[in-house]
C-alpha cells in the first residue's frame, strides 16, 4: 500500500479519536474504549504492550489505562494515567509516550509509579471518591502527591500566620492527576489547635499543585486527655534523614538551629537517638543526641522551640554530658 495513503489514514484515525476541547500546549483528550488492545492500528496498543513488558520485570501486572491526552507532533505524544497491581495492592501510575505516524517507533518516557495504594471498591464514594489510608512517612518522598499537597497547604497557612500540623482524613479521586478532599489539623495565629478543610489537585509529573476551597473551623475543644497529649505532654516524633536533607519541616529547622549552635563550640552531632514533640503556641522539640568533642563521644539533650508564623527558633534548654549549659 502507498505509504502516503497509510500516513493520511493514520492521521484521520488520530483526529477521529481526539476530543474537541484543546488544552494548554495543544493537548487533547484522547478517546479510547475497553478492548483497544486488540486493535493493532491504535497507537495506544503499541504503548500498552511496550509498557506492560517493561513493568512486568518489576512484578507489576493488570495495567489499565484510565485517562489519556494526546499531542500531534511529527507523530503523537501521549500523557497516560493508569492503574496497576503490585503485591496485591492497586496503585496509580503515569507515563509519557511517543508513537510515530508509521507506528514503527514507540518510546516510553517519564514512567512514574505512585506509592499510595488505592482504596478498594467497597470504599468508593459518590463521584468516584474513595477513602485514602494515609501512609506513614509519606513526607520522605518529595514526589508523593500527598507531600506536594501538604507543602502547598503549609505555604497557604503560613501566609495567614497559621501552622500546618497533620492530615486528619483524606478522600481521593483519580482524574488526569489526583484530587484530594483533605481535613487537617493546624495551629491558628493564637496557637490554638483547629481543623481545616480544602480541595487539592495534584499532577505530580508536571509539579503542579492547586489548593482551593480552604476553610477553617473554630478551635478544637479538647478533652482532658487530649489536652495532656497536645498542650502539656510530649509525644514521640518520627523523623527521617531525607527530612533533614530537604529542610522542609519544622523539625529540620529546629535541628539546624541546634547543629549550628553547637558547631560554634566545636561540637559536632554524630547521631540523633530520640526526638519528642510538644504542641504549645508553636512546637517544642526535645532532641536526644550523641556528639563528638575532642574525639570523645558523649550524650546531650536539647529543647528547641519553633513558631513558624513569627519566624521564631530558639534553644530553651541544652544539656551536654549531664551538665546544663548556658549559651
What does this structure look like?
- The protein has 327 residues and is an alpha+beta fold.
- It folds into three domains: 3-113, Roll (Nuclear Transport Factor 2, Chain: A); 122-221, Nuclear Transport Factor 2, Chain: A; 230-324, Nuclear Transport Factor 2, Chain: A.
- The chain is 22% helix and 46% strand.
- The chain is built from six helices and 17 strands.
- The strands form three sheets. A six-stranded antiparallel β-sheet has the order 1-2-3-4-5-6. Strands 12-13-14-15-16-17 form a six-stranded antiparallel β-sheet. Strands 7-8-9-10-11 form a five-stranded antiparallel β-sheet, covered by helices on one side.
- Strand 10 (193-203) and strand 11 form a beta hairpin.
- It is elongated, with a radius of gyration of 26 Å.
- The N and C termini lie far apart (85 Å).
- The model is unreliable at 3-24, 116-126 and 220-231 (pLDDT under 50).
- It comes from Tetrahymena thermophila (strain SB210).
- InterPro entries: Cystatin-like (IPR053128), Cystatin_sf (IPR046350), Prot_inh_cystat_CS (IPR018073).
- This is Transmembrane protein, putative.
Amino acid at each position: 500500500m502507498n505509504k502516503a495513503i497509510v500516513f493520511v489514514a493514520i492521521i484521520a484515525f488520530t483526529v477521529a479519536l481526539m476530543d474537541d476541547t484543546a488544552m494548554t500546549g495543544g493537548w487533547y483528550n484522547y478517546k479510547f474504549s475497553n478492548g483497544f488492545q486488540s486493535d493493532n492500528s491504535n497507537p495506544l496498543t503499541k504503548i500498552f504492550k511496550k509498557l506492560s513488558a517493561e513493568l512486568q520485570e518489576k512484578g507489576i501486572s493488570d495495567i489499565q489505562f484510565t485517562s489519556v491526552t494526546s499531542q500531534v507532533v511529527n507523530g503523537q505524544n501521549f500523557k497516560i494515567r493508569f492503574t496497576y497491581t503490585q503485591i496485591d495492592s492497586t496503585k496509580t501510575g503515569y507515563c509519557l509516550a511517543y508513537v510515530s505516524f508509521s507506528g514503527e517507533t514507540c518510546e516510553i518516557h517519564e514512567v512514574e509509579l505512585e506509592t499510595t495504594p488505592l482504596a478498594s471498591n467497597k470504599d468508593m464514594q459518590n463521584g468516584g471518591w474513595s477513602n485514602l489510608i494515609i501512609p506513614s512517612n509519606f513526607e520522605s518522598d518529595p514526589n508523593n502527591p500527598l507531600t506536594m499537597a501538604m507543602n502547598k497547604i503549609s505555604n497557604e497557612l503560613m501566609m495567614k500566620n497559621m501552622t500546618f500540623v497533620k492530615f486528619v482524613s483524606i478522600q481521593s479521586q483519580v482524574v488526569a492527576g489526583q484530587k484530594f478532599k483533605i481535613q487537617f489539623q493546624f495551629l491558628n495565629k493564637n496557637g490554638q489547635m483547629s481543623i481545616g478543610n480544602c480541595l487539592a489537585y495534584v499532577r505530580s509529573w508536571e509539579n503542579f499543585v492547586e489548593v482551593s476551597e480552604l476553610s477553617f473551623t473554630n478551635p478544637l475543644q479538647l478533652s482532658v486527655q487530649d489536652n495532656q497529649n497536645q498542650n502539656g505532654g510530649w509525644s514521640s516524633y518520627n523523623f527521617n534523614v531525607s527530612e533533614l536533607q530537604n529542610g522542609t519541616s519544622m523539625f529540620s529547622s529546629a535541628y539546624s538551629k541546634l547543629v549550628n549552635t553547637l558547631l560554634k563550640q566545636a561540637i559536632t552531632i554524630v547521631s540523633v537517638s530520640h526526638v519528642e514533640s510538644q504542641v504549645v503556641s508553636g512546637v517544642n522539640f526535645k532532641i536526644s543526641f550523641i556528639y563528638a568533642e575532642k574525639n570523645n563521644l558523649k550524650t546531650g539533650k536539647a529543647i528547641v522551640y519553633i513558631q513558624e508564623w513569627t519566624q521564631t527558633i530558639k534553644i530553651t534548654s541544652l544539656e551536654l554530658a549531664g551538665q546544663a549549659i548556658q549559651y
